[in-house]
Design brief:
Blueprint: H1 9-68, E1 71-74, E2 79-82
Length: about 80
């Protein structure tokens, strides 16, 4: 049974379409995974900046409270109303 069989052009074309489809999907899945990694990195950067901003806000609030006491600040007018 060493005789070789040659597939028809149509059969080969159909097989190549399936192979090419798998390659295209594999490539797209890889692209999606890369995008996920980049988004995860960006998410971590933004969360880090958020934490820095919270720390800055807390420090400023403590400094202003020590200087002016407890009260309310209208940030748009700059007016402070003691409690």
């Amino acid at each position: 049974m060493d005789s070789k069989v040659k597939f028809s052009d149509k059969e080969l074309e159909e097989l190549k379409e399936v192979r090419d489809g798998y390659e295209a999907i594999s490539f797209e899945l890889g692209q999606i995974e890369l995008q996920k990694l980049f988004l995860k990195e960006r998410d971590e950067e933004i969360k880090s900046k958020l934490n820095e901003l919270k720390d800055k806000e807390k420090k400023q609030a403590e400094e202003l409270q020590n200087k002016y006491g407890v009260g309310a600040l209208d940030i748009d007018t700059g007016e402070f109303t003691p409690a």
